[in-house]
Amino acid sequence: MNNTGKESRPLNFIETIIEEGLKNGKNEGRVHTRFPPEPNGYLHIGHAKSICLNFGLAEKYGGKCNLRFDDTNPVTEEVEYVDSIKEDIRWLGFDWEDREYYASDYFDLLYEFALKLIKNGKAYVDDQSVEAISEQRGTPTQSGTESPCRNRSIEENLELFEKMRNGEFAEGTHVLRAKIDMASPNMHMRDPVIYRIKHASHHRTGDTWCIYPMYDFAHGQSDYFEGITHSICTLEFEVHRPLYDWLVEELKESDYRPHQIEFARLNLSFTIMSKRRLLELVKKGYVRGWDDPRMPTICAFRRRGYTPEAIRFFAERVGVAKRDNVIDVALLEHTIREDLNMRANRVMAVLNPLKVVIINYPEDKVEWMETINNPEDENMGTRKIPFSRELLIEQDDFMEDPPKKFFRLSPGNEVRLKSAYIIKCEKVIKDNNGRIVELHCTYDPDTRSGGPQSNRKVKSTIHWLSSRHAFKAEIRLYDRLFNKEDPGEFDEGQDFISNLNPDSLEILDGYVEPSLKGSRPLEKFQFQRLGYFCVDPDSTEEKLVFNRTVTLRDTWARIQAKA
Ligand code: ATP
Ligand code: MG
After folding, report:
1. At 115, which CATH number?
2. 384 belongs to a structural domain
3. Alpha helices in 137-239 (DSSP H)
4. Ligand 1 pocket, 48 CB below 6 A?
5. Pocket residue to mutate for ligand 1, from 12, 34, 38, most atoms within 8 A of Cβ
6. Are 90 and 174 within one domain?
7. CA of 81 to the centre of ligand 1 (A)
């Protein structure tokens, strides 16, 4: 396995279907897919999976992938979402070229198609109440009953449908239904509604329409209009497939037909992926926005420091399944670590500072210590970091009364300062409340890299900063947003909000080494011994803001080692 997102593996079941079709000369050898988001929210990691699959297959088989906005519901859709979706797909590294389509582009064609169905006696206007229609649908084990409107004349249907279109009826009073089979064992075939009235402005068609096609009616037909060959969707649409095929069969004017193929949606442990719920988190202020780094959205991952390469590799790694499953979020985090390990410079940062004075080091002296940027890649070079008499170390790296296995700094004990000297703690200074405020240490001048004692072993190496050179930084530490493996599961009378982790964000005032001054948003670093961090756009000239991307603790690698 390598890190390029490509690993040799057997064909997945969709590739097998595609290759079989190509062998049999289906669709004149064309492979044409589409990614069909509904612009009613920001894209999340599940969508990323679908994007990688659709664009990836087109790439692999020399085909094309369209971007199509499924904008058939004027009430929930917004231009903000359209823009964010395009930005996120581009950022992931995919290109739909000039093929940016909207289901709303086809409203005229769909209307014509509805008329054709009516004229062929395959659709009728139903003016019963929503409740009556739903009651007549029956149950999975019991046939439905036919609507009293089912046998209206074609003329009457045409007239009523035109009145629907002209805005003469109120919402909810009339629908257009396909006339299929009320006794079908498949509920979706029991005269499904294909048009409804909505007196609402559409983000693209404005007030041109007050009737809107239902998803099932628009989707397959849009595939047909665009010449899609493989219409890949998630498993819940499997039961819609007979309707998809029925409608395409009614519409088709040649031998070409798009085919729907279903795969299992990506589910991640500790993660919510319903757009409705994500919207609730944003609207009610449980997070700071769609791009809050705790969200599973693509824009949040970007802000948190994930790279598009890592996300694409993850999508490839989880594969394509036919059965629903849940992927351990630790695998995603593991993939992010692997990726950042190769690309992030190792730098010094102290999150909870404790002052250290090197009492045998001259007051005004500064030495610039050479240090390696990334031990994984020598091409990433070296840089120099300042050392002086007053240092900052992590509070955790000192204990006044250490237990047996504590090998870091303690009274009378030595540690190595990474890329610098070995120091020894001589004295602990406390304030009036007994709080430790400062350590007095001595350093051993021979232990510097290149010095006669540079290889002298001590049990522990810690990170540090020169106090007067250190640069202020706000550090945002993220933990999982939910503390339950399946956040969609909750006790009666509760909702998914009750599974939120109250400690998912901790903000610290820390320090980083001076070379980081002037870092740009989204630059990525490994803070030695602490984790991977990424510069947040909230950063200013005076203060950098960092998001913790992931810690260094790799629970996935540990699980794998045990297995
Ligand atoms: P909702 O959250 O409202 O159910 P959705 O997730 O279906 O909506 P769409 O905008 O309709 O959102 O999705 C666009 C495409 O992304 C669809 O083809 C859908 O099947 C796919 N998709 C959505 N969620 C996932 C997921 N978790 N895994 C894989 N594909 C997904
Ligand atoms: Mg959907």
Report:
1. 3.40.50.620
2. yes
3. 154-165, 215-226
4. no
5. 38
6. yes
7. 14
The token pair that represents 434 in the structure block: 């007994």
- The owner of tokens 């679908």 is 50
Res 437 pLDDT > 70 = yes
Active site residue 275: yes
Q: Which residue out of 265, 288, 317, 424 is catalytically annotated? A: 265
Tell me the percentage of the chain whose pLDDT exceeds 70.
Answer: 99
Q: Which of 211, 235, 231 is nearest to 223 (CA)?
A: 231
* Total domain count, the chain: 3
- Whether 265 is a known active-site residue: answer yes
Same domain, 425 and 487: no
pTM higher than the cut 0.90: yes
Is 59 in the same domain as 146?
yes
Q: What is the pLDDT of residues 308-352, one digit of tens each?
A: 999 999 999 999 999 999 999 999 999 999 999 999 999 999 999
Element (DSSP H or E) covering residue 368? strand 367-372
User: How far from chain centre, in Å, is Cα 82?
Assistant: 16
Query: Domain range spanning residue 424?
Result: 349-463
The verdict on 140 and 73 lying in the same domain is yes
The pLDDT tens digits of the residues spanning 85-143 come to 999 999 999 999 999 999 999 999 999 999 999 999 999 999 999 999 999 999 999 99
Q: Does residue 270 lie within any of the structural domains?
A: no
Whether 5 is covered by a domain: the verdict is no
Does the beta carbon of 44 lie inside 6 Å of ligand 1? no
82 and 177 assigned to the same domain: yes
Residue 274: CB within 6 Å of ligand 1? yes
Residues 486 and 448 in one domain: no
> Minimum-distance ligand to the CA of 48?
1
Amino acid at 140: P
| Helix/strand/coil (H/E/C) assignment for every residue in 443-473 | EEHHHCCCCCCCCCCCCCEECCEECCCCEEE
Ligand 1 and 238: CB distance under 6 A: no
CATH number at residue 457: 2.40.240.10
Let me know if residue 4 belongs to a domain: no
Cα(5)–Cα(62) distance, integer angstroms? 18
CA of 444 to the centre of ligand 1 (A): 61
Q: Ligand 2 center to residue 327 CA distance, Å?
A: 21
Domain boundary among 441, 463, 485: 463
End of a domain among 463, 498, 522?
A: 463
CB of 280 shorter than 6 A to ligand 1: no
Is the same domain home to 72 and 199?
yes
Whether 432 and 483 share a structural domain:
no
* Bridge partners, 68 (sequence order): 101
* 424 assigned to active site: no
Distance 336 CA to ligand 2 centre (A): 27
Among 234, 241, 263, 316, residue to substitute to test ligand 1 (most atoms within 8 Å of Cβ) = 234
What angle in degrees, to the nearest 10, is found between the helix axes of 79-92 and 308-318? Answer: 80
Which residues, listed in sequence order, are joined to residue 357 by a DSSP beta bridge? 390, 440
